[in-house]
Structure to design on (63 residues):
């Protein structure tokens, strides 16, 4: 499956967590893994949304 590009403007991890619907700790983990990447305040969150969707389906982040 190819990942999609979905760009947003976010100035903080809190903004990203609200857009992605996860905690700031998960956002930091996604940044460390290179799943969500930035160009200044412009973020490509498409791959992160795909990753979080797949993790939710597999029960990786939510109980």
């Amino acid at each position: 499956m190819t990942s999609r590009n979905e760009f947003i403007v976010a100035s903080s991890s809190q903004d990203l967590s609200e857009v992605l619907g996860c905690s700031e700790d998960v956002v930091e983990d996604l940044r460390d893994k290179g799943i969500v990447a930035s160009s200044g305040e412009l973020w490509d969150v498409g791959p992160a949304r795909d990753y979080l969707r797949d993790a939710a389906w597999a029960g990786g982040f939510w109980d």
